[in-house]
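User: My instructor asked us to take a sequence, write out its structure as tokens, and then describe one feature of it. I'm not sure where to start. Here is the sequence I was given:
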Amino acid sequence: MPNFSVTFRPTGTVRVLELNGELDAHTASELEAAFQRCLDDDAYRVIVHGGNLQYISSAGLGVFMAYVEPMREAGGDIKITELQERVYAVFDLLGFPMLFDITPAEAEAVAQFEASPNGMSAD
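Assistant: Let's start with the prediction itself. The structure tokens for your sequence are:
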């Protein structure tokens, strides 16, 4: 079974989820639980830090799609940051950069949240 974990880290008014390992059909429920915990805690401004994410499958990508609308409807957003090149390539191939803000540095994602009441891009 793949090794995967999610660590929560508050950063001001933003909650950071640090992903580690391989996100696939066997581990996607852990990310689902993390996003649900954010919703339950009224933490709608979420940054997913993917610097230690080694792999993502379609099941993992589906979790992002399942939770972005509830976050946005609640006035927040999900931003993705610091993905490794090979993991970013999967997100890019499926058009995620058109749906999510994906930044090279966590500080940039934090700044986007600080610049906008709901954290969504002004594009």
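For the description part of your assignment, you could build on this observation: Strands lie at 4-11, 14-23, 45-56, 77-81, 101-103. Try explaining in your own words what that tells you about the chain.
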